[in-house]
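Reading a protein record of the kind used here takes little practice once its layout is understood. Each number in the token line that follows is a code from a learned vocabulary of backbone shapes. One such record is shown here in full, so that the layout can be seen directly:
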Amino acid sequence: MAVKEVLGKYTKEQIKKAAQIKALFFDVDGVLTDGGIIYDNTGCETKRFNVKDGYIISHLKKAGILVGIITGRESKIVSNRAAELKLDFCHQGIVDKYSVFEKLVEFHKLKRKQVAYIGDDINDLKVLQSCGLSACPADAIGYVKSRVDIITDGNGGQGVVREISDLILAAQGLLDKILKN
């Protein structure tokens, strides 16, 4: 039932693309978080992450799916979260995300169509238009939304990575197995 529930809101083309995914890359601010950055009086930065996004990553990795971050900002908090989730990589301070995307595709011997990417702003556009399955949060900028395969139900920081991960796992016939364990 859960697989039908997950897949029921997607088109055949979206499901077909998700079935081919071997890697999931994503931005942080506005995707893993709500895009807000909080500084306290001492200058310490705070971000809020959704535990549902983090939880599904271990299942992606067990399924052999490469998972990692490509983000424009640098933050110790993001390094800590990436380590906690045991991500395959965490590239921070990236001005040209497309260049890093291309290097990762080549290094991991992937085809672009095997990579899903979730982003929400201008610096994500070239990757979103080059990958196999592109997605953005519901609160992404309008011109980003018009250029992706999927607009998630949730806003940034509200389970966006989880939503796309569930689709990938369901399209590959893996979600049922996860739910039965």
About this structure: The chain has a mean pLDDT of 96. The beta strands are 23-26, 38-39, 45-46, 66-70, 89-91, 115-118, 133-136, 150-151. The CA atoms of residues 21 and 131 lie 10 Å apart. The radius of gyration is 15 Å.
